[in-house]
Design brief:
Layout (H helix, E strand, L loop, with lengths): L1 E2 L5 H12 L3 E2 L2 E4 L4 E4 L2 H14 L2 E10 L2 E10 L4 E7 L8 H20 L3 E2 L1 H20 L6 H14 L8 E2 L1 H12 L9 H9 L2 H6 L1 E2 L5 H5 L20 E3 L4 E3 L17 E3 L13
Parallel strand pairs: 2-8
Antiparallel strand pairs: 1-7, 3-4, 5-6, 6-7, 9-10, 11-12, 11-13
Helix pairs in contact: 1-2, 2-3, 5-6, 5-7
């Protein structure tokens, strides 16, 4: 960004101009069927800033320049005092560089350069935003104005709810009112025939999308907390002497209930001459000849 050596009167005049510059609305839509976006074109931007700038003795000029094969739009705001501010904006074009693509890149850079230096803002909330908001409000109103089910219809809704309760996705909890809304919207009315409960339940449980739509997503974790879970029994403490044996060590002539690590005597650490008192008596067994 470049400025004149003196830079006092232009900032004061630009401040007055910005106070008069108003927000502009998007007036163009670009893109295809899958992706599109709105924007304010160059004509709308120039009309929004030119009057307030000129009323405060400021004019602007824009041109293109090329530096080492890179293309730029140079924008200069000039005050009647001779003061100025100047900056460059890169021209962005697609890989295929043709006159039409270059012209679009120049127009894009000129628009955003003027918007940046003047503080101009473009918005589409008054159009697309309001439409989306009104659509959402209409859908919510439609849900709230559904007729109340009669006794037979309510019984069907309750049975569907009970049958689907355990099918709720992990972390979600089933909402009976949403089930009623789903049934009414699918069948264009409630159902009073209890014989159709099984068909409804089977169809709804087969679709994760449907199940998510009839669950309360603001109660994540509630279903998991409410469902009873089987607790694993705590393991019994390991019995170090399951057969209740008593051992004798003939090395140190002591008796004990438990062997030490690696089967040694806990007193002298000997692993020889250790017998249990319940071992068969071998004194009367003749030695082999």
């Amino acid at each position: 960004m470049k400025t004149s050596e003196t830079f006092k009167e232009l900032p004061e005049a630009l401040l007055k101009a910005q106070k008069a510059i108003d927000i502009v609305k998007f007036n163009k839509t670009a893109g295809g069927t899958k992706f599109s976006f709105q924007y304010a074109d160059l004509e709308v931007v120039v009309k929004a800033v030119k009057g307030p700038l000129n009323d405060n003795d400021i004019c602007f000029i824009q041109g293109t320049e090329t530096v080492e094969d890179h293309h730029f739009v140079t924008t200069r705001l000039m005050h009647k005092s001779g003061e100025y501010i100047e900056f460059s904006t890169p021209i962005l074009v697609a890989a295929k560089l043709d006159p039409q693509a270059f012209g679009s890149g120049v127009s894009y850079a000129k628009r955003y350069a003027l918007m940046m230096v003047t503080g101009l803002v473009a918005t589409g909330e008054d159009d697309g935003g309001d439409k989306a908001k009104k659509k959402s409000q209409a859908q919510e109103k439609a849900k709230n104005t559904l007729p109340k089910p009669n006794k037979a219809e309510l019984e069907v809704i309750k049975k569907v709810y009970k049958a689907l309760f355990d099918s709720a996705p992990e972390g979600l909890i089933l909402n009976q009112d949403k089930i009623a809304i789903y049934i009414h919207g699918t069948k264009n009315g409630y159902i009073s025939d209890l014989k159709k409960v099984g068909v409804i339940v089977t169809y709804m449980a087969s679709s994760s999308q449907i199940m998510n739509s009839v669950c309360d997503k603001q109660a994540r974790g509630a279903a998991k907390r409410n469902k009873t879970t089987s607790q694993k029994p705590k393991p019994e403490p390991k019995d170090m002497n399951p057969d209740n044996l008593r051992y004798n060590c003939f090395e140190c002539m002591t008796s004990f209930d438990e062997l030490g690590e690696q089967g040694v005597c806990p007193n002298c650490s000997s692993h020889k001459d250790i017998v249990d008192t319940d071992a068969p008596d071998t004194t009367d067994i003749p030695a082999p000849e």
